[in-house]
Amino acid sequence: MADRVRIRRGLTGDQLRALSHPLRLRMLEVLREGPATASALGRRLGESSGATSYHLRALAKAGVVEEDERGSKRERWWRRVDSFTLVSRALPEELDPADRATIDAALARIDAFFLDRDDEALRRWSDQRDSLGREWQDASMLGNWPVLATPAEVKALWTLVITEIDKLRRSAADAPEGAAEVHVSLRVLPTPEP
Questions:
Q1: pTM attached to this predicted model
Q2: Which among 14, 35, 123, 141 is least buried, having the fewest CB atoms inside 10 angstroms?
Q3: Could you tell me the maximum CA-CA distance found in the chain, to the nearest angstrom?
Q4: CATH number at residue 20
């Protein structure tokens, strides 16, 4: 898999629209672990294979997933094109208003997906933190800090953090003993004046 590591930093409008469906984002998360069939994705995500097959074809049309060589005429396997996809807010200035509105709507749906995931992870952690072992309680962290920074400094900050996070994005087989799934969330947002 190491030879397939590729980070995509920008997405086309079609790719953003394809990614703006919550099930497609969940499917990409599962495909991060390795290639899978529509049936396997359906079982893992509690969806029908018809639904996952439909969404895989939409992701393939947008160039986000592709067929894996282990597929056959009877069973199609799919894999991510990139190991890491960063959804950028940098839009070309020459976009016409209709395209900009469509892309803004897709970005809003993607943002809502991640905010919902963060809310759910925080709720579960809050409800269960007392039952976590002392080591996991000590490793957990919440915090926020207002800072004064330029756009270039902000990009450098989240690029550094994402680079470190990506080092921990590995399969269960590659993780050290004692590793468990951890929800890592990063928000780097300018604070508009009231």
A1: 0.72
A2: 141
A3: 59
A4: 1.10.10.10
